[in-house]
Specification:
The protein is α/β, with parallel strands linked by helices and 197 residues long. The protein is 28% helix and 21% strand. It has a single domain, classed as 3-Layer(aba) Sandwich (Rossmann fold), CATH 3.40.50. The longest helix is centred in the N-terminal third of the chain and has 19 residues.
Length: 197
């Protein structure tokens, strides 16, 4: 990746994170609840058997309640385990949030139990975090490239959860490296990213 692109991404990350972190706890709870309600109303999510969903961290759109809801509905739920040696995320099936332990950066994750790894071809949809997004689905992550690597290897339907303040007009995009998401769910709307390409 060109250094100028990397520096621009760093600057944008800091700017959007500052905005997101400025939301009060009550605002985040209220907006997260609206986002999860909208997510659950999507037929592709409601009808899914197996979902790969991130475990929210700090000021991200909160997913703990959604995970509990999906588990109660009888869905198979996989959450990311970060394999630091290979710089990748692995979908690991869980039955309860109580199974999670702190991983890199303190993000809760499941232990790397080979018997609980969910093959990608069984996953109906991936619910991903991010720092910023464009309407066309360009995603700015945290800089590790973990989700980009996953999506390059597995072309699965992708749903990003974001607050409206995370939607911006333009982001740096490196074809073949950066991967777009298909749908963005915010507290105000459902964005079909393919409509903006």
């Amino acid at each position: 990746m060109p250094e100028s692109v990397s520096l621009l991404k760093q600057k944008l990350r800091a700017e959007i994170l500052n905005r997101r972190n400025a939301l009060s706890v009550l605002e985040r709870q209220h907006k997260s609840a609206a986002i999860i309600s909208r997510l659950c109303g999507i037929s592709q999510i409601a009808d899914a058997h197996t979902l790969f969903i991130y475990v929210s961290y700090k000021s991200e759109v909160a997913t703990h309640a959604a995970i509990e809801r999906f588990l109660a509905e009888g869905k198979t739920i996989a959450v990311p385990h970060t394999d630091r040696e290979r710089c990748r995320i692995i979908p690991v099936r869980i039955n309860s949030l109580s199974e999670l332990v702190p991983g890199p950066r303190g993000i809760l994750q499941p232990p790397a139990d080979p018997s609980c790894i969910v093959p990608a071809h069984l996953i109906d949809a991936v619910i991903t975090p991010g720092i910023a997004f464009t309407l066309s689905g360009i995603r700015l992550g945290y800089g590790g490239g973990l989700y980009d690597r996953f999506f390059r290897k597995h072309q699965l339907p992708s749903f990003a959860l974001a607050f409206e303040l995370q939607i911006i007009d333009a982001l740096p995009f490196v074809p073949g490296y950066d991967m777009r998401v298909d749908v963005i769910v915010t507290e105000d709307r459902l964005i079909s990213c393919r409509d903006y390409r």
